[in-house]
Amino acid sequence: MFFPTFRARRIRGKEVFRNMVRETSLSVNDLVYPMFSVFGKGIRKEISSMPGIYQQSIEHIVAEAQQAHELGIPAVLLFGIPERKDAVGSDAYAKHGIIQETIRALKKQLPKLAVITDVCMCEYTDHGHCGIIKDGDVDNDSTLELLCKEALSHAQAGADMVAPSDMMDGRIAAIRETLDKNGFAHLPIMSYAVKYASGYYGPFREAAESTPQFGDRRSYQMDPANRLEALREAAMDVEEGADIIMVKPGLPYLDIVREMRNEFNLPVAVYNVSGEYSMIKAAAKMGWIDEERVIMETMLSFKRAGADLILTYHALEVAKMLQKGYEMARATRCGCP
Ligand code: PBG
Ligand code: ZN
Predict the structure, then answer these.
(1) CB within 6 Å of ligand 1 — which residues?
(2) How far is 313 from 165, CA to CA, in rounded Å?
(3) Least CB-packed of 98, 192, 206, 274 within 10 Å?
(4) Rounded to two decimals, what is the model's pTM?
């Protein structure tokens, strides 16, 4: 393909052609909306570093989830902030814990909206780590038992899918076995298969009140420098029975999303995490970027990298943009005069 026989600009010359040859598209069906359910009543507290995202008590969660549902968003991802935290995260697997009650309320009011639950201990432990502490570190195998109890209690409360985010070894197999033994063989697992120890989770920890009280998560979350390790992690989860594999964070790890797409034939999800959201909101507030355009371009980049599903705090905004006919063309059009 040589100039002047070939001219790449020919097919870019008209909007109608650009629309015809666009390789990637975004649909409301690709979106999952993460929500923070807090114990109590009448609470709707905005997270200071995440404008537009709230810690909400159950009745407000249901109201906002209804909005998501009406916009056509197929699923929400739930995080819980319990009344009390303790060393073993008891509320995580309590029959009437915060998440269990939220699931029941959502399934009662909005039976067709899929409820996915984050399965982890860090929102429920007083030390803020993702499992049981032994000798100053998270103990893998004793944590597995609690994760199984947690996942099962979510299933029993009516969750449609569970999403373990703890990064313990063997958790997918353990949870799969527990679910199968208890009559939930049909319940899918979305594994946070490739989860990096990331500074981009900062705002989330304010939202979920889950900052570790000592140390950090580098003994269980992955080193941002590693790519082959991502392939090993995902291969383990696939063999253990994961139904969807997720990469997290999103934007700084698009290469890893592409690796997953090329290597595995399972659906791939990407988590557009809190810090990514906060950065767009902050720059938009400063008037430095065209917010809608940057959001859509970001979503498109996930699809182009190979993701099937996007977990994003922008879900409501994106669904509204799609609804009012925001053409992907706009996201790719030069804004300059
Ligand atoms: C809990 C969990 C975290 C996120 C999702 N599940 C935080 C963490 O591991 O510290 C991050 C989500 C976000 O930043 O939006 N294990
Ligand atoms: Zn955790």
Answers:
(1) 118, 120, 122, 130, 165, 201, 204-205, 217, 273-274
(2) 17
(3) 206
(4) 0.96
